[in-house]
Amino acid sequence: MFITFEGIEGSGKTTQIRRVSEFLRGAGHSLISTREPGSTDIGAKIRAILLDPANKSLDHRAELLLYMADRAHHIGTVVRPALSDGQLVLCDRYFDATLAYQGYARGLDIGLLRDLHRLVLDDFMPHLTLLLDLPAETGLSRAWKQIASGAREDAETRFEKEKLAFHERVRAGYLDLARQAPERFRIIDALQKEDQVRAEIVQIISERLKRCQEQN
Fold first, then answer.
1. What is the pTM of this model?
2. 8 carries a ligand binding annotation
3. Distance set, CA 166 to CA 136, 138, 172, 180 (Å)
4. Which of 26, 137, 145, 166 has its Cα between 20 and 30 A from that of 119?
5. Does domain 2-215 sit in CATH 3.40.50.300?
6. Is position 10 annotated in a ligand binding site?
């Protein structure tokens, strides 16, 4: 099963993937946790370009194609092989992030983004997407506190330095995507305490895994 975690900056995706991965492994599941961009050697180089605040002038279309290049390599070399081996795959961001950031927030044509996804990745989509939702202002505040404390890389702050209105468009985009695909998305209140968020995610994934086992 391919499970993606989505949300604005400061939503807690990375923390929750780590904690949920630990729980699932403890429960006997074989899995990998990964991320976009940057989960491969090539992807790490692409990530450095995309998230470096010095690259604030990067053209929006170039940004999009760098994300697509990372994704094509990531899915082909990491995600599909893991799924073929029967592993769970927990991924920090995927195509919904492209729709939210480059589409809803940057203003690139949504139809073009979907066409590229079909062309490059045969419309390969997650089985389950967990959207950690919270107000943009709160998420940004959390993110900058983590950066100030050294918990996050200062060299990867290109998106954090976007204006609040940009992040509000990202959030609105995510919520719209969730409304369009309710069978795949689950929206989680990221304002809850960390343990509450983890418990909710674990319950959702456990129920989905049980349903898959019953169907098989």
1. 0.96
2. yes
3. 9, 14, 10, 21
4. 166
5. yes
6. yes
Distance CA(133)–CA(11), nearest Å, equals: 7
Q: Which percentage of the chain shows pLDDT scores above 70?
A: 100
Burial code (b: 16+ CB inside 10 Å, e: under 16) for 56-83 equals eeeeeeebbebbbebbebbbeebbeebb
Per the annotation, does 42 bind a ligand?
Answer: no
Q: Residue 43: which of 65, 11, 20, 66 has the closest Cα? A: 66
Alpha helices in 85-135 (DSSP H): 95-98, 110-121
3-state secondary structure of 166: helix
Annotated binding residue 7: yes
Per domain, the residue ranges of the chain are: 2-215
Is residue 131 within 8 A of residue 205, CB to CB? The reply is no
Distance CA 70, CA 23 (A): 28
pLDDT tens, position by position, 40-85: 999 999 999 999 999 999 999 999 999 999 999 999 999 999 999 9
